[in-house]
What we know:
CATH architecture of the domain at 3-44 and 61-83 and 241-324 and 470-525 in chain A: 3-Layer(bba) Sandwich
CATH topology of the largest domain in chain B: Gyrase A, domain 2
CATH class of the domain at 3-44 and 61-83 and 241-324 and 470-525 in chain A: Alpha Beta
Number of helices of chain A: 18
Oligomer: heterodimer
CATH architecture of the largest domain in chain B: 2-Layer Sandwich
Number of strands of chain B: 19
Radius of gyration of chain B: 22 Å
Distance between the termini of chain A: 23 Å
Structural class of chain A: alpha/beta
Largest interface: A-B, 31 and 26 residues
Number of domains of chain B: 3
Helix content of chain B: 10-25%
Amino acid sequence: MSSLNNYDAIVIGGGHNGLTAAAYLGRAGKKVLVLERRHILGGAAVTEEVFPGFKFSVCSYVVSLMKANVIRELMLPKFGLEILPLESTFTPLENDYLLRTADSDQTYREIARHSLRDAETYTRFGPLMGQIGMAVRPILETIAPNAIRPSLSDLFNTKKLLDHVKTLTTQQFEYLTKLMTMSSADFLDEWFEFEPLKATMSASGIIGTFMGPRSPGSAYVMLHHYMGDIDGAFRAWGFQKGGTGEVSMAIARSAEHFGVDIKTEASVMNIIIKNNKAVGVALENGDEYRSDIVISGLDPKQSFLNLVNENELPSEFVQDIKNFRIRGSSGKVNLALDGLPDFSCLPGNGHHLRGAISISPSYDHLENAYDDAKYGNFSKKPFMDIILPSVLDPEMAPPGKHVMSCFVQYAPYNIQGGWNDEKREAFGDTVVDTLAHYAPNIKDIILHRQVLTPADLESTFGLTEGNIFHGELTIQQLFSLRPAVRWADYTTPIRNYYQCGSGTHPGGGITGSPGEMAAKKILGIL
Amino acid sequence: MSYYNQFTANTQLKLSPFFERTSKLNESQEWRRWSGYLSATNYELTHENEYFAIRTKAALLDISPLKKYLIEGPDALNLLDRLVTRNIKICKVGQVMYTPWCDENGKVIDDGTVQRLSENRYRITSAEPNLDWINHVATGMNVKIIDDSETTAALALQGPNSREILNSISEISLNGLKFFWMMDTNFNGIPVSISRTGYTGDLGYEIWMQPENALLIWDLLLEKGNTYGITPTGLHALDISRIEAGLILLDVDYVSSRHAIIEARKSSPFELGLGWAIKMKKDDFIGKNALKKELECGPEWEFVGIEIEWSELENHYRNVGLAPGLPSTAWRTSTPLYYNSEQIGYATSGTWSPILKRYIALAHVKSEYSKKGTILDFEIKIEHFKKTTRARVVNTPFFNPERKRSCPA
């Protein structure tokens, strides 16, 4: 074995969390290798020129949850992080619309057009969610303590958290409890009355989750999406110039700056384990690499049921991982357009095309869409979260052309009869038909269409069942229980084998957080 | 639509040749006064998109309020070389030089650019009226000094896509135009001069034209620039980017010696970080003797970049239960800087840099505290209470992309 193939640490998966973990380890002077199965880095945060001249954030499409200290510590602005503001949320309706913008007076007036009461309440809701965000932030930024057999550092962390919880106001505590347990619909009903406003806000409670807005627990997912901030402003979403792949590339450049080796088209077959201790990895092409530790950025199912042999693991752990809920619920439709969509309710170009466009006219629309999925079909009238990246960054498409990113829910992984080409196209047609209902010109301007079903998300990006969060963000799968009790601190039952993907605390989205915290945990040990 | 076509503002302020267009585009109707002109603060209700246009697309700014003087005649070169601190003798036709100029005591009066338009013809820009001073310096010289402020209109097109936009309109390609050079060309037959200059520290150009062509040029740029993300941009966005670029602003970062009431308010170019622009080897220029003396003793003050460090700032806010309060626009309030509880300087302008994700400011500090890496205490108010938070002396420009100077291969 040549010393060239010996590393302090090997990271499996060049997704944004794997790269983040690698960059932190490299920054601490460790010799690190990242192995990515695909020809391109980024995992689900990837930009690809799917059609000549048309670039897409193929999967993950917006940024807000990326941690500020990760941005600073890895010097990401220097390596290409450029996040443009997504200023508005546009909900087209029948003959009307709801358009919330970055200007609070304008938004007040717009909501008041539909409900004066809601306009008033809305000004209180934002600050409250900011407060809750502040209350939750320290919990998210702490390595989840092992509740069963706590170590000294677990006790220390627990104490820190208890101290923090003691500082919460009654109001923060009340709303935190509500958000942890309620459905997003019930929670929002306590505040608002205008259905399209409630439905659009509740939509962040279902994204990436196999739940409807009326399912208990969806309020937490909504909170998870509220936690993001850009430059200190809570609930601000942004678009990375060049697509989300550039976030991954910025992290990769930072990692390389810190001396990390990165190999693409290097598919890991299994972890090499000696005496219940990880000592390296074996690639599908037969290559082997040795290292003191191995870190998996893949989801828990891949990390424990695929890369290692079940009999290397305690049976109760295997059971926990098998029970870990990772149902895919969404698809992605990427459109190359000859022009801009023209919405019947608000024709022409304007500010409404510069932010998120949400097909969420009512709770019933979302809940019916969920009902279809519950019984094994894709939604006949899906919920969609749409952006037009080329409006924000003209370089995403050839001059005068546009790209449109449609996040679509629901598309169950376990669809009746299984996914096939015919179903994929039918799903794509449904999405376009739904869009055409609001923007009739859409069919005339589509040049190319890429449809990704949960099965495609699994086969292309390695997301088990196509789940974008590496496992649902439901209360029984959070914090000390993510991905399994006792193993929420990035360690695993196999010595020197660690995990750093979105399936670990604090979960999914482009945050860099699991990668950062895993690396910090490892550096405390290594 | 006839209302729009008849738009006039009820104001005693001067209206730029572009006002016909800018007034209609300005959704916020927020204006600032700039040299007696009405100048857009931001066109949209918030300035964010305009700021990102400067850094990621292309921003179009009306810079007509700039003071401009034409200097012509056999002694034009001698006059300028005597007036300013840079060596104008090496300025070639088509070249542009940034320079400050001083009074006899070596204190800065103003700063701007000198464009060499032809053998004996120059244009100098300034922030404030300087006609009187230039005339004073020109005593006995064979030159003609013309106030060009209202006879030339100007636009700045700044941002990574600016070159492509100009190339799509200009008869002559801009690919060969180097940083701080200029050229004459035409847009659809309309003559313009384009200098590769700006106040953003990014790839960018300034377009100089006759006022009667202003609207035609504006329309052409917006039309052709549309697919490149061209964005009419106001002073809020410009102010953030000029701080990122480490560029000083008269009356904000320094006071002109021509109207400083007390000596202490005046600054030498060395004290403004402009030592590089002082050519002591060239022939006599105004202020040279005083500057020579200052060089021997070393300047008392230095002008530096500082970065307000995150962790302590965040802790201050966390202690009162708030998320870090970052300024959403650039500020220009003189802010004390301390070293061991003693005030040793003051920051004059600062901003959160959205592209760098750093809180930065420009500051005057006593020379012994100007070394890179020095940790100072920056005064800040957290919920009305005065605190100090760590700030580090860093290099400027804070933001300096390669594209600012590079030419396409």
